[in-house]
Design goal:
- This protein is an all-beta fold and about 160 residues long.
- It has two domains: about 10-85, CalX-beta domain (Immunoglobulin-like, Sandwich); about 90-160.
- It is built from no helices and eleven strands.
- It has strands at about 10-20, 30-35, 60-65, 80-85, 90, 100, 105-110, 115-120, 130-135, 140-145, 155-160.
- It has a four-stranded antiparallel beta sheet with strand order 2-1-3-4, with no helix packed on it.
- A hairpin with a 6-residue loop joins strand 8 and strand 9 (about 130-135).
- The chain is elongated and about 75 Å long.
Length: about 160
């Protein structure tokens, strides 16, 4: 929060987070409290912890609202801001792994940061084999054309390099 204008007096203001598409406890830690700015202090930071939920969902949002300023303080109309959490989770998009009628498996990966990723498969969760290497970020579709050869098959994606 930044104070504009006269900063000769102390200032207190209450703040609290609220859900948007992001959910407290899943995407971020709900936070509330009181900010105290000393005389001549012009800014304070509200820190909100971001949680990794392991789901590749795309950007989600929550709000931070300030209220109850100390006497004589005006907000100038802005007392709420929206915070966007960019998806930082590597993995599969929810409901993106589907077996096709011909036995092939289609899936969609989220690779949020440029780097080297390896999509791997296993039939026993012990021995893993690489299926494909990616060196780009973002939405990555993949079709496993060999899936019909197995009664069950597991998938994982690992970041293996910068």
């Amino acid at each position: 929060m930044q104070r504009l204008g006269d900063s000769s007096n102390a200032l207190t203001v209450d703040y609290a987070t609220s859900d948007g598409t992001a959910k407290a406890g899943l995407n971020y830690v709900a936070t509330n409290g009181t900010l105290r700015l000393a005389p001549l202090e012009n800014s304070k930071t509200i820190t909100v912890a971001i949680l990794r939920d392991g789901l590749a969902t795309g950007p989600v949002t929550f709000s931070v609202t300030v209220r109850n300023p100390s006497a004589g303080v005006l907000f100038g109309g802005l007392n709420r801001t929206t915070v966007t959490i960019q998806d930082s989770d590597t993995g599969f998009f929810p409901r993106s792994i589907t077996r096709q009628a011909d036995g092939q498996v289609s899936l969609a990966l989220n690779l949020p940061i440029l780097g080297t990723y390896v999509l791997q498969t296993s039939t026993n969760l012990v021995d893993w084999s690489p299926l494909r290497t990616y060196t780009t970020s973002g939405y990555q579709p993949f079709t496993d054309t060999d899936a019909q050869k197995f009664s069950h098959r597991f998938y994982r994606v690992l970041k293996t390099g910068p």
